[in-house]
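>> received
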Amino acid sequence: MTRTASAFWLNESGNGEVRQVTLAEPGPGEAEVRTLFSGVSRGTETLVFRGGVPENQHAAMRAPFQEGDFPWPVKYGYLNVGVAETGQHNGRTVFCLYPHQTRYVVPETSLTPVPDDVPAERAILAGTVETAVNAVWDAHPLIGDRIAVVGGGMVGSSIAAVVATFPGARVQLVDADPTRKTIAEKLGVGFALPDNAEDGCDLVFHASATEPGLTTALNLLAPEGRVVELSWYGDKKVSVPLGEFFHSRRLTIRSSQVGTVGRPDRTYAERMALALDLLKDDRFDALITGHSAFEELPDVMPKLADGTIPALCHRIDYGQQHVSG
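>> returned
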């Protein structure tokens, strides 16, 4: 008898649906997982939702367990927490870079156990905190650095939370949306609108995915300062102000992308385990700004994309999901 599960697919710009998909029996070295929660990473997933992935980046942007090809139809997502029901992690809460689906079968090596003192609801942030860990590894901050994070979205806020505990650092979250001040307060960092941000920074993380944001990041740097660029612009062209003071101040812009581990002495598995360990800190709860039931995803995703539902990470709740067939 064929077994099935329910999965969320994007069909075309502004249109998604829940489909029944075939659920294979776990083979050697595989595990079946029952999803408890998944997360919508608003920036990346809404870019995919509107079909904004450039053709020359289709391969680079593939999620680990994506099905279909860009632009559509595609099953996309990478923040999934569930309970392993077979295999070496049987009975354990696990994190996986899997799309929005009620149940799935994956290699056991793709599962990371969630520490007992990390709530499953919070563990959906592991994929984004992993990006933040990688960015900090790429940045090499020093004790006492003056640090700004431009862009208070999910990635930027995760970075702010990570560097907030760095010894002697001055950390400020910079965003054009004044409501992000509440997020900054919960994370224990300063907040400023772009025109009021403190300059003279040694290090600026840029995560706003906007041209004005990148300009702000450069403007905030002290001589010899560096911008670590995390923004994914998709198919947008970006103008960078490399005239004026860029050369005279000897500034640096470097990229950071989670597809490569920022330290040669660490593995992907070690980076993910570290991200989950950091999520023992309840300050990260500030990044989960709403939730919906899985069945509501076709209606919720367009509202996340157009801003009708404001969000950093929007949690998807699965309740008691059962296998069909």
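>> The first strand starts at residue 4 and ends at 12.
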